[in-house]
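batch_manifest entry 22 of 60
target: Streptomycin 6-kinase
source organism: Rhodopseudomonas pseudopalustris
requested by: lab member K.T.
priority: normal
notes from requester: please return tokens only, no post-processing; we will run our own comparison against the previous entry in this batch. if the run fails, retry once and flag.
--- input ---
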Amino acid sequence: MIDPHGLLGERTFDYANIFTNSDLSDPSRPLAILPGQLEARPKVVIVATGMEPARLLSWIIVWTGLSAAWFIGDGDDQGTAIDLTINSEARRLLD
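--- output ---
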């Protein structure tokens, strides 16, 4: 993988944002926040990468919290709601 900034970090973080991207790119067609999606979609990543489920869910929680904070700062209620919905669901699944 090429990282033009020369940054190193947890590879799981790179996967976390894909769980919100579909809804954030087109909020009129919600996919990520549909019931059952967060139970199903991580399984695909886990099978393909061998990541630990709890680790992936933890990074989804971190990412959606950070992203929601940015949306709150921008006054974007719709983006905030999407991130917080997925965050809440990921926390529920982690428990």
